[in-house]
Design brief:
Elements: E1 5-9, E2 12-18, E3 32-41, E4 48-51, E5 59-62, H1 70-77, E6 84-89, H2 97-108, H3 124-127, H4 135-142, E7 147-157, H5 171-190, H6 194-212, H7 220-242, H8 246-259, H9 264-276, H10 280-293, H11 298-326
Antiparallel strand pairs: 1-2, 2-6, 3-4, 3-5, 3-7, 6-7
Keywords: Cytoplasm, Phosphoprotein, Repeat, TPR repeat
InterPro entries: AIP/AIPL1/TTC9, PPIase_AIP, PPIase_dom_sf, TPR-like_helical_dom_sf, TPR_rpt
Subunit structure: Interacts with RET in the pituitary gland; this interaction prevents the formation of the AIP-survivin complex.
């Protein structure tokens, strides 16, 4: 027998799927709710727009932080930990969903959720003619409609029992979190856990980037924040070098060198990344520049160039054998 549909408030109807395992939480301001969500259209096929369970990390929402989709906070407040429920929400309550979904998708992909929309203002009306970068979200933005959310509330954490994600922090909290995240990243790196170390560095960078976006590019405050970002980004690149993510290293080191052309660490890491993807001449140029800027690194550079030469010789021999076999 289907569960009864109840009206939570104007425009929100709820159907319980699986009951929770504990009493209703207080959900005072600062409470963190961790949940998976599945977003569906109200069409005959119940077309799926998003399903967070397909991503590595569930959604985290801080009660009272004025999340861009207030209906989610209203929904969560009606739930128990462990509960699974379905919510039908009228169009006016989900008008911002395409923009929210875009940001969440970009975050899940490790991208800046604000790229491409930093200077847009005036709400969704002015964004009507701008692509969000996703065809389904563009269609939903042009044709707003009711949405169905299936929410699985995984965990409820009281204020003070967790560290907030960067997007949920105040400016002061972000500044305070950066040195702690940096230290945690360094400790994880020393333990050989480059994946988690990179995540810590990335989180610290995200804190500083969000503050930097509020400053005029090139201003003293902007530069001060950028100088804090740079060593964190270099640490992140070191982790990615060890993990074989060479094109990420090339991208990030180049972004540093576009601003600070004499950054020896960025040149050296970019040189190693170039060497790893067979960009021999580019690697040699970067390594030559390293030695010019810091002659004490000449022995280290010589080792990298020797490794590159050996790899090129091996590749040449492999290519000769491969091409020889083509004609047999």
């Amino acid at each position: 027998m289907a569960a009864e549909v109840v009206t939570l408030s104007e425009g929100i109807r709820k159907r319980l799927i699986t009951a929770g395992k504990c009493n209703l939480a207080d959900f005072c301001n600062g409470t963190k709710a961790i949940f998976h969500y599945r977003t569906e259209l109200c069409d005959q096929k119940r077309t799926v727009i998003d399903d967070s369970s397909e991503r590595e990390k569930p959604m985290e929402l801080i009660i009272g932080k004025k999340f861009k989709l207030p209906v989610w906070e209203n929904i969560i407040r009606s739930m128990q930990q462990g509960e699974v429920s379905e919510f039908l929400c009228d169009t006016p309550l989900v008008i911002e969903y395409p923009q929210v979904s875009r940001s969440l998708r970009r975050i899940a992909a490790g991208q800046d959720p604000r790229d491409g929309q930093r200077h847009c203002c005036g709400g969704i009306a002015q964004l009507h003619d701008h692509s969000l970068g996703y065809q389904d979200l563009d269609e939903l933005q042009k044709n707003p409609q009711p949405l169905i959310f299936i929410i699985r509330l995984l965990q409820v954490q009281g204020p003070g029992s967790y560290r907030q994600d960067a997007w949920a922090m105040s400016d002061e909290e972000k500044l305070g979190a950066v040195p702690l995240l940096h230290q945690e990243g360094n400790q994880l790196y020393k333990q050989g856990n480059t994946t988690d170390a990179a995540a810590k560095y990335y989180e610290a960078i995200a804190c500083l980037k969000s503050l930097q976006m509020k400053e005029q590019p090139g201003s003293s405050d902007w530069i001060a924040l950028d100088l804090k970002i740079t060593p964190l980004l270099l640490n992140y690149c070191q982790c990615k070098l060890l993990e074989g993510e060479f094109y990420q290293v090339l991208e990030h080191c180049s972004s540093i060198l576009n601003k600070y052309s004499d950054n020896v660490k960025a040149l050296f890491k970019r040189g190693r990344a170039h060497a790893a993807v067979w960009n021999a001449s580019e690697a040699e140029q970067d390594f030559s520049r390293v030695v010019t800027l810091d002659p004490s690194l000449a022995p280290l550079v010589a080792k990298e160039l020797k490794k590159l030469e050996m790899r090129l010789q091996e590749k040449e021999q492999e290519d000769k054998i491969r091409f020889r076999n083509i004609f047999h």
